[in-house]
Specification:
Layout lengths: L1 H12 L10 H4 L9 H12 L2 E5 L6 H14 L5 E5 L16 H5 L4 H11 L1 H10 L2 E3 L13 E5 L7 H8 L6 E7 L11 H11 L6 E3 L9 H12 L3
Parallel strand pairs: 1-5, 1-6, 2-3, 2-4, 4-5
Helix pairs in contact: 4-6, 6-7, 8-9
């Protein structure tokens, strides 16, 4: 009897070998690794703060990191929803000129974020999440009166919000939400003061506990040609 008990104990002490499937890597992709010090600051801010403001030129990873984080949190069920929005300030056209529903009209404008999420999650998982309402693209036109809870909210191209619009956006945020505000104040298409500039002023002047991560031209990682063009336009003040 004692021998049988000893054998059972030995069997129970052996480490359990889990059977891996080809989907394991898809469900648990490698965590984002920063390519620059500023990207590291961005990731640290996302890990510790409920609101993060990210500034800088194109190609620095602002949108990519936001979209990847959104996909990871949703896939891990650490949030119930991802809400994506951006102001509608195109060159000479309004959303009303494009066919389809309001959500379909805004879809091309948020493609940089949604394409990043789709690549991270997989196209099928992304489409299922959209149909289930776990990923929602919310135009500014229908945002007033809503409250966002237990979700990640991303405002992209925030430099093109007016002060009234960004005020309306920030007052939609409810409990258990993380907010990422992305923008490049040097690229605003508004004739009036950018709402993003107003928010930055408020955060700094009131010493609010909201990290502001500011990328520079040296942080461009998209490609060498991208960095070359951004620097050329910046140096010529165009």
């Amino acid at each position: 009897m004692k021998r049988r008990r000893a054998r059972l104990e030995l069997v129970e002490d052996r480490p359990i070998r889990m059977h891996r499937t080809r989907f394991d890597e898809e469900r648990n992709p490698v965590p984002i690794q920063p390519l620059t010090d500023k990207q590291g600051q961005y990731l640290d801010a996302l890990a510790s703060s409920s609101q993060v403001i990210v500034l800088g030129p194109a190609g620095t990873g602002k949108t990519f990191i936001a979209g990847t984080r959104a996909a990871d949190l949703l896939r891990q069920r650490r949030i119930s929803k991802v809400v994506i929005t951006r102001p509608n300030v195109p060159s000479g056209r309004s959303l009303g000129f494009f066919p389809g529903t309001l959500e379909e009209k805004i879809a091309p404008w948020v493609a940089p974020l949604t394409e990043t999420m789709k690549e991270r999650m997989g196209a099928a998982a992304f489409d299922i999440a959209v149909k289930a309402g776990d990923i929602e693209v919310v135009p500014f036109e229908v945002m007033r009166g809503r409250t966002f809870k237990n979700c990640l909210v991303i405002l992209d191209e925030a430099q093109n919000t007016t002060t009234a619009e960004i005020k309306m956006f920030l007052t939609r945020i409810g409990d258990d939400c993380q907010v990422i505000i992305n923008g490049d104040v040097s690229q605003t298409d508004l004739r009036e003061t950018s709402g993003l500039r107003t928010v930055i002023h408020l955060v700094k002047s009131r010493m609010m506990a909201i990290p502001i991560v500011e990328f520079t031209l040296d942080d461009i990682v998209r490609s060498g040609i991208c960095a070359e063009w951004v620097k050329a336009f910046e140096e010529e003040r165009l």
